[in-house]
Amino acid sequence: MAYEPSYAERIQYKRLQDAAYQAGQDAVAHLEAALALAGLALPSLTNDGPLGCRGFVRLGGCSVTVANQLAEVVTAGAIALQQQRT
User: Fold this and answer.
1) Cα–Cα distance between 59 and 52 in angstroms, integer?
2) Is the Cβ–Cβ distance between 50 and 14 less than 8 Å?
3) Could you tell me where the beta strands, DSSP code E, fall in the chain?
4) How many angstroms separate the first and last alpha carbons of the chain?
5) How far, in Å, are 32, 44, 84 from residue 73 at the CA level?
6) What is the longest distance spanned by two Cα atoms in the chain?
7) pLDDT tens readout for residues 56-82
8) Which of 5, 6, 12, 25 has its CA 20 to 30 A from that of 72?
């Protein structure tokens, strides 16, 4: 016999999924804002909804130019963080 979650368990799971979806929305907005500061955009960036009870952001594709610019920005940020910690 298959396990059937109780009403309370279904409600709790729904709340976790809703929180995961919102976390994905927030992550997309945060990443869009950060990319905009660098003059970049990922046109396919989207919240792909919860995956189980975890948020999931799809970065999508971009041009080679944008990928290279993004790599430069991430590298510069990583170097700045390393220097800040020392």
Assistant:
1) 19
2) no
3) 46-47, 57-58
4) 59
5) 14, 19, 16
6) 59
7) 999 999 999 999 999 999 999 999 999
8) 25
